[in-house]
Amino acid sequence: MGNLQLTVEEINQLKPLEIVEHPVVRERFIFIYDKLWGNGEAAYERESIYFNKALRDNDKGKLQRATPFSIFTAFIDLAVCGLSLEPGTRALAYLMGRNVNVGTKERPQWEGRCVLTVSAYGELVMRTRDGQIRHADNPVLVYDNDEFSFKDIDGRKSVSYTCNLPHTGHNIIACYLRITRADSSIDYSVMYPEDWCRLAGYSQKQNRGVANELYGMDANGVVHIDPGFLMAKCIKHAFKSYPKVRIGRGTELQSQQVDEPAQLSDEEIYGVDPDTGEVLDNAPEPAPQPFGNNEPPQGVTVNTDDEEGF
Fold first, then answer.
1. In angstroms, rounded to a whole number, what is the distance separating the alpha carbons of residues 211 and 206?
2. What backbone torsions phi and psi does residue 135 show, to the nearest 5 degrees?
3. In the 8-state DSSP scheme, what is residue 108?
């Protein structure tokens, strides 16, 4: 890297759409991306466009209310994850707004932050790239007229499934995902109605008594979940027992937004101390990661969960 430096104070003086275009931010993004994945300059040219487009367009530009430093960290985290903000039904990552209380419970002081969120599909890419899994099939929806059983005997999981068409007029009773681990062994993740009803209740509590509309909760509290949404949820909750993937401080995994925090990077990758604003001249280089096959597994379409933002 060159000798260009940027403090937190200087970042906070930049306008939202100026941040990723600043020479120091550009240099740091390319430096990190080159070290981890290669072709950092091409990635910067591509992702800086996607990033600023998301800031302008998402929720009518509300993301621009986030603190400049959170916008900076979200962009740098994109280089750490090696994912893309390219939009689409199989988007690997996207930006979300979060209100964070930086005061106390008695005297709350809310601060808007921009968060890089890795979708379930992006998490599959990261886990494949890290060597945790080889592949994940499309999630399968099971209806009440199908034949289905799930067994877990001495840690060996198996599924028996027979599809009986047509499914018109029948209810979904399960959703399962078949995962091929790195050692070629097979794992299954299964969700039942009690699982998505629990998540619907959580969504209701988090959103002022109104659950995400994709849960399909009616006036009586009965959940009629959207099939595509359930398939995405099945992916998100498939890796609870797997090692955490390393992410930056300004990043969330969809699969862990309801559960426990992911493992944050313990390296100072941003080049500045977020608490003091001090420039870190000797910030350690990110540890090189295996390049592997960065192509996402084929098949899964992810409908993102519209959680509460700003």
1. 8
2. -165, 155
3. -
Average pLDDT over residues 74-94: 92
Angle formed by the axes of helices 120-129 and 227-236, to 10°? 30
Residues 108 and 97 placed together within one structural domain of the fold? yes
What HEC string does 234-246 produce?
A: HHHCCCCCCCCCC
Contact 181/189 with Cβ under 8 angstroms? no
Residue 162's H or E segment, with its range, is: strand 156-162
Residue written as token pair 């599909």? 121
Q: Are strands 147-153 and 110-118 parallel, antiparallel or unpaired?
A: unpaired
From 236, 269, 296, give the residue that closes a domain.
236
d(CA 215, CA 221): 10
- Name 101's bridge partners: 110
Q: Which residues contact 176 (CB under 8 A, 6 or more apart)?
A: 139, 140, 142, 150, 159, 161, 188, 189, 190, 191, 234
DSSP secondary structure letter of residue 112 = E
The kind and range of the H/E element at 175 are strand 172-181
The whole-chain average pLDDT of the chain stands at: 81
Q: Are residues 262 and 283 in the same domain?
A: yes
Q: Residue 185, SS3?
A: coil
Average pLDDT over residues 85-91: 87
The pLDDT score that the predictor gives to residue 257 is 56
Q: How many domains are there within the chain?
A: 2
In this structure, the answer to whether residues 121 and 21 fall within a common structural domain is yes
Integer CA distances (angstroms), 300 to 14, 133, 244, in order: 38, 15, 21
Which residues form the domain of 204? 134-236
Which amino acid is present at 157? K
User: Using alpha carbons only, what angle is made at residue 289 by residues 235 and 181, rounded to the nearest 5 degrees?
Assistant: 35
Answer whether residue 276 shows pLDDT above 90: no
Domain boundary among 205, 236, 267: 236
